[in-house]
């Protein structure tokens, strides 16, 4: 048995890959989704026209049995743009399930980005537990609100709102990327992401523009709620970006004004405290959680992070100030999949500025799996939370508070990119 992983180039191989994808994700072919021919053309177009996208296949004895789509992203890591790798559309031929095809694809995914000197990757899991075992740590939760339009505050005006079309896409990109440059964890928009917004005929794009600059926008569509009543619809917000309170309030005023046509508005957000902004945050189920907690947002885990070169990643963190802490710690990282990434580092911090030492004495020893380290570094979880959950070992518990301060991230990461 000979297995080879390389970039998909030939049209016939894209046809085979589409068949594998449809078998792995049958929901893609539910009538509203693209046909196989359209998917093939989309994949080939992306490969040729978007420098951030790359399709790879795994061949066994010259037969394509699996594949994946790789992404080159730029992510805001504590106000510095850092190249990161992404993987999506990992698909395995139905006849080859449970034969470690996905594992080989992911290992090749690591190798490709390590060769590019990229130390951090991300994905959306088809099963979080599967990728957790492969060293991926949880990213931020998402909260799905389902509220009435009148729950969105009505401001004094919406006179600065307008529709955006494909001719205005640069304004949208500029607005999004300005927000991304200020928000830890956000990825810059890629060519394909922008294209998808405007090529989807179901999408509406409303923007708030002042003095020729888009300061916020909403991408949304409508979802039918009844086959018997065409007037009963929900609005689904697919992207909600705002730079200023004024932009948010004008866009909120627009949403408020849809009450005569829209039953409820579905809003997926990673902002934990938007219930301070909304009026009635209840989701319409009238469910009570003991003792008296009203059901509001449904939450979920999705995006997962992974450090694939611990030392390389900490070298990139030398520009970050670790909250003014002075401490020398020995960090022992366990990585069961990437053995070379099971590393021991001595990290010296002086007033928050770190340096990696080859050897020497240290104040405290910390042992952690690469999955939890990836989440900890990004600010998804804290040292004290991991300690109480038995997910981190500290040689001297007297240092817990200073370790908490050292790793603490004020702003949890945000990621709106779907891949």
UniProtKB/TrEMBL annotation:
Molecular function via GO: acyltransferase activity
Q: Name one Pfam family in it.
A: Acetyltransf_17
Which InterPro entries does UniProt cross-reference here?
Answer: Acetyltransf_17, Acetyltransferase_Eis, Acyl_CoA_acyltransferase, Eis_dom, GNAT_dom, SCP2_sterol-bd_dom_sf
What is this enzyme's EC?
Answer: 2.3.1.-
Coiled-coil stretches noted in the UniProt entry, renumbered to this chain: none
**Which stretches make up the N-acetyltransferase domain?**
4-159
Q: What is this protein called?
A: GNAT family N-acetyltransferase
- Source species, please? Lysinibacillus irui
């Amino acid at each position: 048995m000979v297995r080879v992983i390389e970039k998909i180039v030939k049209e016939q191989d894209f046809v085979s890959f589409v068949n594998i994808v449809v078998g792995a994700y049958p929901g893609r072919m539910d009538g509203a989704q693209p046909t196989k021919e359209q998917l093939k053309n989309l994949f080939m177009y992306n490969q040729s026209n978007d420098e951030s996208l790359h399709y790879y296949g795994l061949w066994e004895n010259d037969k394509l049995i699996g594949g994946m789509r790789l992404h080159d992203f730029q992510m805001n890591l504590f106000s510095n743009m850092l190249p990161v790798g992404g993987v999506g559309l990992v698909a395995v031929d139905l006849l080859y399930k449970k034969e470690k095809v996905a594992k080989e694809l992911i290992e090749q995914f690591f190798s490709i980005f390590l060769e590019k000197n990229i130390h951090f990757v991300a994905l959306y899991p088809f099963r979080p537990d599967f990728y957790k075992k492969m060293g991926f740590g949880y990213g931020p939760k998402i909260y799905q609100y389902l509220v009435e339009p009148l729950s969105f505050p009505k401001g004094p005006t919406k006179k600065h709102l307008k529709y955006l079309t494909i001719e205005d896409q640069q304004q949208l990109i500029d607005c999004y990327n300005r927000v991304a440059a200020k928000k830890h964890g956000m990825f810059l928009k890629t060519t394909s992401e922008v294209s998808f917004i405007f090529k989807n005929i179901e999408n509406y794009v409303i923007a708030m523009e002042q003095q020729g600059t888009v300061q916020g926008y909403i991408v949304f569509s409508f979802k039918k709620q009844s086959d018997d009543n065409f007037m009963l619809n929900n609005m689904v917000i697919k992207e909600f970006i705002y730079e200023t309170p004024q932009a948010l309030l004008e866009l909120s005023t627009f949403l408020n004004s849809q009450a005569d046509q829209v039953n409820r508005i579905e809003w997926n957000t990673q902002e934990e405290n938007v219930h301070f902004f909304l009026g009635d945050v209840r989701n319409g189920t009238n469910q009570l959680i003991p003792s008296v907690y009203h059901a509001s947002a449904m939450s979920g885990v999705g995006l997962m992070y992974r450090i694939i070169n611990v030392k390389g990643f900490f070298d990139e963190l030398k520009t970050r100030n670790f909250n003014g802490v002075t401490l020398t710690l020995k960090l022992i990282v366990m990585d069961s999949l990437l053995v070379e990434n099971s590393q021991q580092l001595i990290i010296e911090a002086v007033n928050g500025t770190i340096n990696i030492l080859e050897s020497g004495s240290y104040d405290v020893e910390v042992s952690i799996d690469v999955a939890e380290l990836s989440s900890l570094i990004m600010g998804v979880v804290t040292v004290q939370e991991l300690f109480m959950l038995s997910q981190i070992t500290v040689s001297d518990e007297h240092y817990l508070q200073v370790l908490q301060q050292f790793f603490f991230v004020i702003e949890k990461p945000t990621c709106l990119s779907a891949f």
